[in-house]
Amino acid sequence: MAPPPEHDVRRLGNTPEPPEPPSLPPEEIIKKFAAKEDEYVAVRPTYGARKTIRIDEFDRQGKLSGQFLMVTETIRAPDGRIVNKVVQHPQSTLHVFALETEDVKELERIPQFPLNSTQLAKYDLKYIGQETIDEIDAYIFKVTPKALDRTHAYLDGIVWVDTKYLEVVKTYGRWVNELGDVKFATMPFTTFETYRENVDGKYWFPNYERADETLHLKDGDFPVRLVIKWSDFKSLPAGSAQPAAPAPSAAPPPAPSATPSAVPQP
């Protein structure tokens, strides 16, 4: 599934009235797509991919004024470990806010498949309609946490589910806990829009994630944007699937962050 042009990412603001009931009971749709999410959780660590993280700053006229860029690739090392190899070392011309490589690694805490079957009991999911995105007819569900605490973060947003194969193809929302929006290290991003790509004709993996925020500083308001892209998905050589080791840091670790330390549920 291709993401939209970066200047035309769509938002779904108000809850639409369902035009008609889905062809299957919503409970059955939810159960089936959660089972697919379980499968993806298990299979995703066996695939490598190239990951590009880009953070853009814009001036008050909307022109690009600074950028952070980092490219890694997930591979299996000769010793059998799965590691994130640095393809392009972090480069930064950011001016508005300071950013360290360790801060960017905090983004890895965002679950790629948040609505697997082990997590469903923690959410209320409400069917709110249908929409066609990139020629895929999709059911739309609003996702709301049933309860919040201080130690975990929960998705509060919307998911789009393919009406034919009952697989999640897009998510949009923020991570929240009892204290409010969860932020990652020093970064201001709280609301994420994620598109998925069909890999090997069997799995829908995230391939594009974007977040937009505005920094309100004494010199004015400055838009900032985060874009994460995954590409070149490949099945890793045989070996025990382990979580990928972090890429070597090109900068010293930052001071402890004052942002909430809540970790999103896997």
Question: Please, could you describe this protein's structure?
Answer:
The chain has 266 residues and is mainly β. The chain has one domain. The chain has two helices and twelve strands. The protein has helices spanning 26-43, 101-105, and strands at 47-58, 64-76, 82-92, 123-133, 136-145, 152-162, 168-177, 180-181, 191-199, 203-217, 220-235, 263-264. Strands 1, 2, 3, 4, 5, 6, 7, 8, 9, 10, 11 and 12 form a twelve-stranded mixed β-sheet that branches. A hairpin with a 2-residue loop joins strand 10 (203-217) and strand 11 (220-235). The radius of gyration is 19 Å and the shape is globular. The two termini are 23 Å apart. Residues 7-13 and 246-266 have low confidence and may be disordered.
Topology:
Blueprint: H1 26-43, E1 47-58, E2 64-76, E3 82-92, H2 101-105, E4 123-133, E5 136-145, E6 152-162, E7 168-177, E8 180-181, E9 191-199, E10 203-217, E11 220-235, E12 263-264
Parallel strand pairs: 6-12
Antiparallel strand pairs: 1-2, 1-11, 2-3, 4-5, 5-6, 6-7, 7-8, 7-9, 9-10, 10-11
